[in-house]
Please model this.
Amino acid sequence: MGSIRLNKINKSFGATEVLKNINLEISDGEFLILVGPSGCGKSTLMNLIAGLEDITSGEIVIDGKDISSESPKDRDIAMVFQSYALYPTMDVARNICFGLEMRKTPKKEQEAILKEVSEVLQIDQLLDRKPGQLSGGQRQRVAMGRALARSPKVFLFDEPLSNLDAKLRVEMRTEIKKLHQRLKTTIVYVTHDQVEAMTLADRIAVLKDGEVQQLGTPYEIYNDPVSHFVADFMGSPGMNFIECVVKDKKLIIESSGQRYELTVPCEKELVDSKLDTVLLGIRPEMLTEVTPEASSPYIQEISFDVLVIEPMGADTVAIGEWNNTEVIARLNPDSGKHAGKEFKLQVDTSKAVLFNPNSGLRLR
Amino acid sequence: MLNYLEKHLPKIVLAPTTIVMIVCMYGFIAWTGLLSLTKSRMMPQWEFVGLDQYVRLFANPRWDVAVDNLFIFLILFIIIALVLGLLLAIFLDQKIRVEGAIRTIYLYPMAISFIVTGTAWKWILNPGLGIEKLFRDLGFAGFEFRWLVDSDMAIYTIVIAAVWQSSGFVMALFLAGLRGVDDNLTKAAKIDGASTVRLYWHIILPLMRPVFFSAIVILTHIAIKSFDLVQALTGGGPGYSSDLPANFMYTFSFNRAQIGMGAASAMIMLFGVLAVLIPYLYSELREKK
Amino acid sequence: MNRQTPLSINIGRVMIYLLLVAFALLYLAPLYVMIATSFKDIEEIRSGNLMAPPLSPTFYAWTKAWSSACTGSECEGLAPFFWNSVKIVVPAVSISTIIGAFNGYALAKWRFKGSEFLFGALLFGCFIPFQVILLPMAKLLGSLGLANTVTGLVMVHVIYGVAFTTLFFRNYYVGVPTELVRAARLDGAGFLNTFRYIFLPLSTPIFVVTVIWQFTQIWNDFLFGVVYSGAGTQPITVALNNLVNTSVGGKEYNVDMAAAIIAALPTLVVYVVAGKYFVRGLTAGAVKG
Model:
C-alpha cells in the first residue's frame, strides 16, 4: 500500500514562500509526475514528502497515517536522485544493500533481495564494481536497485534521467514504465521534461511559482489546459499562440493582405467573455499541408510564409509568419520539401483553445 | 526522544567547540582587553586606569622601535616575497622539465620552524665567520657584512631569513593560480598575436588579483605574528633594535612583569591584524554575491 | 606577428632554466651550510669558510647536540626535549584532527540556523595573533594546575588547532555531494552512521593533509612552548633556542647546526615523503581561509 495525501502544504525558506497551499491525493500504485520550470518548487515538494526538509505547515499522510514529523528513515520511502548519489566507496552490491544493512535485515535475506533486484535491473555482473567504474546508464540502474531493494511504499524519482544522453534517456524511460507496471508501487516523479511527463504519468501535476496549476491525465493536460502557462509548457514543439480580434463568435486574422474568419468550438464561452481580443492556442499538428478530402466547418486553407524548415525525419517542422506572429506547423516530410513563400496550409481549429490575453486563463 | 537526539546531534557535536571557542578565543580577547585597561604589573589586578597603559605604551621608545621595525619588515618582506614568488611561479609555469624537483626545493623552508631558520641564518650571517669570511676567501679582501650586530641593519637580516622561508610558499600560491587560468584564454590571446610578456602583464596578472590578496593577507599575518624568528636570529638585538611588537609583548608580559602594558600591546597587534583582515573578508564576501 | 626563431626560443628557455637552477641553489645553500658545518670540528670552522665541505667529517657535534649539549642549566643535549615534543605532538595532532573531522562534517552537511555564523566565528580563530590570548591562557592553565605540563601544552595546541582542522574538513566535505547524505538518510543512516560508512572512507586525503599541517604547526611551535612549558617539559624548539644562546665555554657553531637539523628533521622528513599533501594543506589553509 502507498497512498499519499498532501493536505494544505506550505513551505517557506525565511521570507520566501516556495510552496503555497498544495493539496494532492495520490492513490496507491499511481504514477504521478510533478512538472514545472526550474524554481517552481517541485523538488522541494519531493524533499518534503521524503522528510529531507520540514514542512512549514500542513500535513503529509501516507496510508492514513500522518507522517509529517517523522524522520525520513521511518517513512518507508525510497528515492532515486538526479545525481544518483551512489556511495562512492562502496561496491554496487553494498550500495544496494546499505538500506537493508542499516535496518538490520538478516544477511541471508539481504542476499536474496540483492539477487532478485540485480536480475530485474540486469546489473548482476556489476555487483563488485565501484560506482566510479560504471557508465551513466549503469549508475542509473544501480540507483534504482538501491531504491527497489527496500520495497518501500513509495518511490520518489528526482529528475532521474536528466544526466543521461538522449538515446539512453528514452531507453530508461521505457524501463521505468515497465518497472512500474510490474511492481505497481506508487511513484512520485519530478521532471522538467514534458515529454517524460507525457509518456510516463498516470497523472501530471503542473507546478508554477509554488502552486499547482493543473492536475490531470496527460491527455487532459495536453488537450484541455487550464491556462496559457500549462498549454505553453506541455508539448514539443510548443503550442502556437496567436492574438486575434473577436467578431460575431468568429476570430478575425489578417495576414499578408488576406483576411480569415476562424470558427472555434467554444463559441458560447467566447461570447460570454465579452473580450475584444483573445489568445488563440493551436497545436502545430493542427497546421498541416492541405488535404483536399478533409472537410469540416473548422478547417480552413490559409497562405503561410515559411521562413525556416526543420526536418525531424518522421515529420517536418515549418516555422513561418502568420498574423505577425511566429507560428509552427507540422508537415509530412514530402510536402515539407516544397514549403516556401506563400505556402498553402490548412488550419484545423476543432481542438483550438482560447485564453484571456490579460489573465492567461482559459475561456471555458 | 531518540529522534530528538538524532535531530540535534550536529549541534551537540559542535557544542564543546563552540563553548571552548567562546571562552578561549572571544572571552580571552575580552579578558586581555580589560586587562589592558588596568594597572596590572606582575599579577592581574582589576584597578582600572582607563587608557593609561596605551599612553605609556606609545610613549615607550622600545615600542616605537618595534612598530617601526614591523613596518619596515612588513613592507620589504611582502614586496620581496611577492615579486620573487610570482617570478619563480611564472618561470616554473613554462613547462619546465624538472618542475617537481625545483618546486620541492623552493618550498622546503616552509616545513622548517622559524627557530631553526633563525639559528641557521644566525650562523650564515655571522660577522667574522659567516658570509663575510666566505667573500674574503673568494678574494674580496675588504668585504664587510655585519648587519647582525649593526643596530640599524639587524631588522633587515630578519627580512632576509623570512623571505627565504616564505617566498617558496608564495610561489606555490601563484603557481596554483596560474594553473587555474583557462587554457583557451591563453590560446585566444596567442591567436590575437599577444607576446608572452603582454599575455602575462595584461591578461594573466589581472586574473591573479585574488591570489595577490590572499598572499598579502597571509604574509601580513606571518609578519605580525613573527616572534620566533626574531628570538632565534637576533634576540631582538643589538639592544632592542630589531624587536617586533610580538617580542615586545612577550618581554613586557613575561620578563618585565608589566602585564598591563603587555596586554595593551597585544590588543594593538589584534587591531593591526583586523585592519588587514576585515577589508579582505569584506571584499571576498562581496565578490561571492 | 610574433615570430621567434628557434634559436631565440632556445636562448630564452636556457635563461629560464639557469635562473630556476640558480634560485634552487640559493634556497638549498642554507641547508648545505648547516649540514657541512655540523660535520666540521671547531678548528675547521675557524680556518675554513661556510661553503667549504668538511675535510675530515666528524660526528662530534651530532652526539653532543643529541646527548650532552647544555640547554641552560642542564647539559643533556636535545634528546629529552625531542621526546617532549613527541609527547606533545602525538596527542595534540590526533585529538585536534578528530574533533576537526566531526566539526567539519557537521558544519558542511548538517547545516542549522546559525551554523554558518558559527563557522565564521571559528574561522576568525585562524587569524588572531596568539599574543592576545597568551595571558589569560596562562592564568587558566595555572588555575587548572596544568602550568608547565605537557598536558597543558597539548590542551593549548588542541584548542587553537581546532579552528584550522575544522576549516580543512569543512571545506573538503562541502565538496561531497549533499545528495549522498540525503540518500543515506532515506536508507536509514543517521548523523553518525553516515559519517562512519560514507564520509570516513572518503576522507583519507584530508586526514593526511590535516595531520601533516597540524604536525608541522605544533612541532615547529615556539610561542606556546616558551610561555607554557617548564624546565622539564620544554619542546625541542625552545630547547634549541636555549642551546644556541647558552655559551658555556666557546661557541660551538657545529653543535648549533647539528641541533638545528635535529629539530628540523621530523618536519623535513614529512615534507619530503608527503610534500604533495603538505602543499595542499598550505594552500587550503591559506587560500580558503
